[in-house]
Amino acid sequence: MAYKISEKINAKIDELLKIYPEKEAVLIPALHEVQKEAGWIPDDAIDALSARLGLPYARIKGVVTFYTMFNRAPVGKYHLQVCRNISCDFMGAREILRHLKEKLKIAEGETTGDGLFTLSTVECLGSCGTAPMIAVNETYHENMSTEKIDLLLEKLKAAQ
Q1: 119 part of a folded domain
Q2: Could you report the average pLDDT of every consecutive run of 10 residues in the chain (160 residues)?
Q3: What residues make up the domain containing 100?
Q4: What is the CATH number of the domain that holds 47?
Q5: Cβ neighbours for 133, distance < 8 A, ≥ 6 positions apart
Q6: Is pTM beyond 0.85 here?
């Protein structure tokens, strides 16, 4: 089934087009809106945005595949993104990643069977002074340890 841009996203794009004369400037905010609504960026959404914005499919696909903030496949309700940059690495990110893999019984890039958690690594989330850190969806969790990870997972599971 082909992706159809919702009225909400179309309205947001219309607002942005009034502010930014270049359609290219609207692309990343429009992609964020699609991802908020769909949870990821399917190829047919790229087709729909290409038609809506009058931008080449290849340009939009290039943006989506370049930035790790855009999900190219469905993710769980909680997308756990472990920062793997040098500060986080030195402060224990590898141990946190290992612990999450063991605790959730999934590998990097996988989603738990219940659809709750997807585990990813990302390059620098820009919180080097509070390393190691992970992002859960859009929320940062800084100065993490395996104990704090366990508490966070319990809290997220309880929120169900």
Answers
A1: yes
A2: 89 94 93 93 95 96 91 93 94 97 96 96 90 94 97 94
A3: 78-158
A4: 1.10.10.1590
A5: 83, 88, 125, 127, 140, 141, 142, 143, 144
A6: no
